[in-house]
Amino acid sequence: MLKSFKFNRWELAGALGDLGTLLPLTVALVTLNHMNATSVFLVVGLTYALSGLFYRLPVPVQPLKAVAAIAITAGLSASVISASGLIMGVLLLLLAVTGLIKPISKLFPLRIVRGIQVGVGLFLIRAGISLVTSRQVVIGGSNAMVSISHFSVPISLLLAIACGLGLLLLLKSRHLPPALVILALGVAIGLVWGSSQGLNTVRLGLSLPSLSSPSLADLSTALLVLVIPQIPLTLANAVFAMSNTAEMYFGAEARRVTPKALLTSMGLANLTAGLVGGVPVCHGSGGLTAHYRFGARTGSAPLMIGALFIALAIVVDGNILPILSLIPYPVLGVLTIFIGVMHALLARDMRNHEDVSVVAVIALTALITTNLAIGFAAGIVLHLVLKAVRRYHPRPVPV
Predict the structure, then answer these.
(1) pLDDT single digits (tens) 228-272
(2) φ and ψ at 146, to 5 degrees?
(3) 278 closest CA partner among 61, 91, 83, 90
(4) Residue ranges of the domains in the chain?
(5) Beta strands of 22-150 (E only): which ranges?
(6) Cβ contacts of residue 111 below 8 Å, gap of 6+?
(7) SS3 breakdown of the chain: % helix, strand, coil, rounded to 5?
(8) DSSP state, 397?
(9) Are 78 and 279 in contact (CB under 8 A)?
(10) Which of 267, 285, 299, 363 is packed most tightly, with the most Cβ within 10 A?
(11) Which residue, among 51, 99, 69, has the nearest Cα to 272 in the 3D structure?
């Protein structure tokens, strides 16, 4: 039991490794969709902490990406977003309790899972590029550009290049966790560019969430607009790809990270989010790569990041964003690009040309359409066509 929890600098570095995915989405939901910051980060923190205790591995917690993307783009209300958590929670728990997840798993052979992993990796790379090319160096800051040979270049891009070189130099260090060094450098950069300006608005004080009671209109909108597009992505990335990724990294130690367990923990977390007005969450496979690649190996990493978010949610009087804004965009972008590359490389065991074709179709279709569910559907069609061709036109056995 004690071997499952090691509190050291590497676990701390790994605990912070997924901030590039977590922070931009949660900050956007709080600022643009007016979600309650206390509820958002309390749900994330509690889910992280409880996941660490149960799985005893660095199991990640992320906002549901399709839900977040659609909600931000469409400007949906906080009550609709949290209502989607209630519906998602019920559906995920039904899949776990009824055993329906077992027949569904037949739709996810290894090459489909690998395609999903590569698709998620490409999404992360694209998100990271967006962050490092942002005209804002820090969240909420002013545009910062520099002229180089008659071209205007974002300052954030130049800072990202410097951070990227630093990350590459530190990757093989046995003493300095790269993520901690880059994040510390990032905070220093952010202070230079004015990320501390909002700190004078931070006040300590007990802040607790209130119960949320979505209307029938909120629930119907959430089901049609948010939940239905999210379900295929959750099953693909947060259940089957997540389970496979954990097994690849941790072997027998990942025995608790099963599809049924993942459905159950996500179901309970989303019910909680729906009840207190928090953001719906999942266990994304890309987040596991982020935690693992930056040093996390045990359940102490989610415990540490969970405790941090719980403290920020409860102790800071509802105004967490100035603290989170200390980390500038270029640093988050560099971390996200690195994790995207590492996650896509999980598919390097796909050697057969049919497997590679399915992986490529899923990843490229998802990237082009910006929808992993469409990529999954395209991959399933190709997978079934290839199976049918092989069944009716078997390859001749060499003599």
Answers:
(1) 989 988 999 999 999 999 999 999 999 999 999 999 999 999 999
(2) -135, 145
(3) 83
(4) 2-391
(5) 62-63, 145-148
(6) 350, 354, 355, 358, 359, 379, 383
(7) 70, 5, 25
(8) P
(9) no
(10) 285
(11) 51
